[in-house]
Amino acid sequence: MFDKYFEDYQLGDVWESKGRTITEADIVMFSALSGDWFPLHTNIEYAKETQYKQRIAHGMLVLSITTGLVHFEPGVVVAFYGMDKVRFTNPTFIGDTIHLEGKVIDLKSKGSNQGIVTVLQEVKKQTDETVAVFEMKLLVNQKTLD
After folding, report:
1. Could you tell me which residues come within 8 angstroms of residue 24 by beta carbon, excluding any fewer than 6 positions away?
2. What's residue 125's pLDDT?
3. From CA 55, how far away is CA 114, in angstroms rounded?
4. Spatial distance between the Cα atoms of 71 and 124, rounded to a whole number of angstroms
5. In Å, how far are 42, 55, 59, 85, 136 from 46, measured between CA atoms?
């Protein structure tokens, strides 16, 4: 997915990732790592009384998992440059399978050797509902390095 040099991208390029199912273990491990034990994610009885009627995955867990759904080619991709306009549009439940759909929406040269590729990312689950949307920016090398 991110295995092309800057000048090889074009506005409108699209791609789709493989899927990944969210598990209870994911939620427990993310809670332990982040320290976020908010009951909507970790307390079955609490979650039953919410509008969702069950536990939901942390939004940041969903975003973190999406990084594993993307291929970043070393030597081509320099670094993750940032994320803008993040929105969580629907809940992600234990057992949901998510994937990413990306579209290149901006290309900006950054010096003579690199550029920033901006991709509109939609995280979708098996029902085709979008659960998160964000713009991801990557710093990418050009083919010819000075």
Report:
1. 94
2. 97
3. 42
4. 18
5. 9, 8, 18, 30, 33
Are 87 and 59 contacting, i.e. CB atoms less than 8 angstroms apart? no
Indicate the pTM of the whole model: 0.90
What DSSP letter does each residue of 31-73 carry, written as one string?
Answer: HHHH----HHHH-HHHHHTSTTSS-B--HHHHHHHHHTTS-B-
SS3 (DSSP) at 100: strand
Residue 62: phi and psi, rounded to 5, are -60, -45
Residue 92 token pair: 């992600």
Give me 35's structure tokens: 């320290």
Q: How confident is the model at residue 36 (pLDDT cuts 50, 70, 90)?
A: very high
pLDDT in tens, 72-123: 889 899 999 999 999 999 999 999 999 999 999 999 999 889 999 999 999 9
Q: Residue 18 contacts by C-beta under 8 Å, 6 or more apart in sequence?
A: 69, 99
